[in-house]
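Example (one chain per record):
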Amino acid sequence: MTDTATSTPAPEKPATRHYAKLAADESREDYSLRYAPHSFRRWGPGTVAGTALGGIAYLADFAIGASIVFAYGFTSGAAAILAAAVVIFLTGIPIARACATYGLDMDLVTRGAGFGYFGSTLTSLIYASFTFIFFALEGSIMAQAMHQAVGLPLEVGYLLTTLVVIPIVFKGMGALAKVQAWTQPVWLIGLVLPFVVLAFHAPDAWGAFADFGGTQGAGSGFSWIGFGFGTGIALSLIAQIGEQADYLRFMPAKTRANSRRWNLAVLAAGPGWVIIGAAKQLGGAFLAFVALEAVGATHALEPIAPQIEALRPWLGGLALPAAALFVIVSQIKINVTNAYSGSLSWSNFFSRVTHRHPGRVWYIFLNLGIALTLMELNMFAMLGKLLGFYSNVGIAWIAAVAADLVINKRLGLSPPYIEFKRAYLYAVNPAGFGAMVIASTVSILAFFGLFGTYAEAFSTFIAAGLALLLCPLIAWMTSGKYYLARPNTVNGPDVTVEDVTATHVCAVCETAYELPDIADCPVQTGPICSLDATCGDVCRKGTAGGAVVLPMPSVRPARPV
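Predicted structure:
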C-alpha cells in the first residue's frame, strides 16, 4: 500500500480495535452489520430458497385474509388480496436480486439505494417494527392454539411462545436452516389436509363463499372503498421481502453453471413468497367462512378454530390436537425468522445511533420483549387498523428502494452497484430518504381522513405512487450527487469471482475481509473494514490531502453471470 496523504498531518493511528465476545463470533452474528462473504455462503441455491420459504409458514395470512373478506365481502376482499400480491411481487423482484447478488441484507441495500448511511437508520426502525408486530401477531395465534388444546392461559402462552424461539435464533442461520427443513413435511400436510377434507365433505362451500357479503354488511358486490381498505391491510406484508433478503444474502455467487437454478431460487424465495401468501389469505378466509356458523365471527378469525372444524369430519376427537400441532409448528417456523430478522435490524439501528455493537444476540431479547408486551396488550384485537396504518410507511420505503434499483440505476442517476460502506456514503441521501418521508407523511394524513374517504381508502396507493415518482425526480434534481461522498477506487478490469473473494486485512481490527467489505482510508496505513469509523469520517469530509489507494477494482457483481 502507498500513502499519498501529504498536505494534512494524519492523526495518530489508534490502537487495534477488538469486538465484544459475542459480536466477534460470526457463527452467531451471521454478519449482522456487514456484507456476507462468499466463504460463508456454503449453502446451495435450493437450500437457501427452501429455508427462506420455510419462514412464510405463518398463519397471520389466514387471519389477515379472513379479516379482509369478513369486513368487505368476497369480491372486494379477493380483489384486494390479489392486487396487493401483484404490487408486492413486482417491488420484490429487484430487491431480491440485489440482496442475492451483493450478499447484503435489506438495511445495507437501503443505504446504497438512495437513503445514505444514517438515512437508512429510520428504515431499520420501520423494519424492526415489522418483525415485532408480526412476532406478536403470530405468537398470539400460537397461544390461542395452546389455550384451545390444553387450556393454557393466554398470558402464559404468550410467554412460552416467546421463550421457545430463543435457543434457535441464538445460533443463527445454520440452526434456522435445520429447523425449517425438519418441520417442512408436518407443515405441508397440515396446510393441505383441511382443504382436502372440505373438498369431500363440503363440495358446495366454495360456491357459497364466492357469494359471501361479509359480516359487516358490505355485500357480495365490488366496492372501490372496500377494495382500497382491503388492499391497504394486505400491503402491510410488503416488508416481508426484508425477511426473505436476510436469507437470500447467503445465496452463492451466480455463475454460468448455476444460472438457471440461481434465478429460479431467487425469484421463488424472494418475491415468490407472496404467491403462496395470497393463496393462504384466500384459503384462510375460506376456512373461516366455513367455520363461521359453528364458532362465531370472533373465533373464526383465530386460525386454530377453523382448522379444527375443517378436520373434524375425518379426525373426530383428534382434530383438536392435530390442528394445534399444525399451528404450533407453523408459528415456530415464522417466529424464529421474525426474531432473527429483528435482531439484525436492531443491530443496524443501534450500531449507528450509539456507535457500539455488543452482538446481535442481545437484540433478540429487545425484539422479543417488545413483542411480548404487544401480545399482553391484545394487539390481535386491533389487527386491521394496526396493519393498515403500518402499510403506509412500509410501502413508501419499499417503493423508494425499488424505484432506485429499477429506474435510477438504469438512467445513470445512481451508481450501477450497491455501495453500502460508510466511507463512501453521505449521512442522508434525499433521493430515497426524502421520497419515503414525503410519501409516507402524505399517505398517513390521507389514512386519517384528511383528504376524504377515497383518499383514506387508497392511502397506500398514494404512498407507493409518490415514492416511485419522487425517488427518481429528486435524484435527477440533485444530479445523483448524494449517492457517493467520494468515488470508490477503481483499478483494473471488471471484477471476477477471484477479485471479490480475495481477502484484505483491516488496518484497525486486523481481521481479514473480502474485497466488498473493504474501503481505502486517508488516515490509516492500510485498508479498513466497512464498520470502522475511528478516523472521524475524514475521507468524506475532504479534510485529508490524499488517500491510500487500493490496487484493486471497485465492487461490482462477480462475472460471469
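Caption: Residues 520 and 549 are 6 Å apart (CA to CA).
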